[in-house]
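Bench log. Compound arrived from synthesis this morning; before running ITC I wanted a structural hypothesis for how NAP sits in the protein. Inputs:
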Amino acid sequence: MLKGKCAIVTGASRGIGKAIALKLASLGANIVLNYRSNEKEALEVENEIKGMGVETLCVKGDISKSEEVDNLINSAKEKFGTIDIMVNNAGITKDALIIRMKEEDFDNVIDVNLKGVFNCLKAITPIMMKQKHGKIINLSSVVGITGNAGQVNYSASKAGVIGMTKSLAREVGSRGITVNAVAPGYIETDMTEALADKYKEEMKKTIPLKRLGKASDVANVVAFLASESADYVTGQVIQVDGGMLM
Ligand code: NAP
């Protein structure tokens, strides 16, 4: 389905990004993996993907730094010629109630989750415009829609990602580029590992499908949006949350 396409996935060393990279590779795409610091795990993902018979490139880089994003995109372009799919997945949390949230915790989360996605969009858009095709998928979150106590910084960043997704979809639709967001609910990864078991059990009760999500649940939807099956879908926010928010 994606044979010969080139896909960049930011934050692909673990969690949802790793699952997305593996899923796109299983469909035949060549994969450019990005990570920030966790080299060992990133190289393990790279090896796993190599074993699937597609080509890969692993690029270390902090998406909050525009020069490191430029290096990521240029390295991918140099190796693969075209970049067909860009998945802006990397993200962080620094949760606290606002009365205890430090200014730097707000800034860090905005720098990575919002400015980082902006850096990636700014670098990839001219390339896709020249190609006259491209699929961009941004990772938002249901809390970007609902808000969440203790996540003023994170929910603002994820609401911002929705705004950027819709604005860019309007800007580049005429160039054959689609831009969509995926808004996961509670997905079992390192990011949600720290939550207390009691809290997770309470969460499950509020989810119609009665379970937390798996990284592969999100990856399957990203794969659809990256495929030709979604050619007439743009500017959308697809929730992958077991029906939690409806
Ligand atoms: P995770 O397990 O914590 O993994 C985060 C990934 O992002 C890692 O690969 C990490 O690289 C990378 N990363 C972090 N900061 C980066 C930076 N500045 N530059 C480049 N890469 C960076 O997170 P996850 O749960 O898979 O979440 C993935 C995305 O889904 C995030 O955008 C998150 O906000 C969103 N999301 C998650 C959930 C959930 O329930 N898990 C729900 C809604 C939305 P290193 O390994 O090198 O640190």
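What the model suggests: Residues 10-17, 34-38, 41, 62-64, 89-92, 112, 116, 139, 141, 184, 186-187, 189-192 surround NAP (CB under 6 Å). The mean pLDDT is 97.
ITC booked for Thursday regardless.
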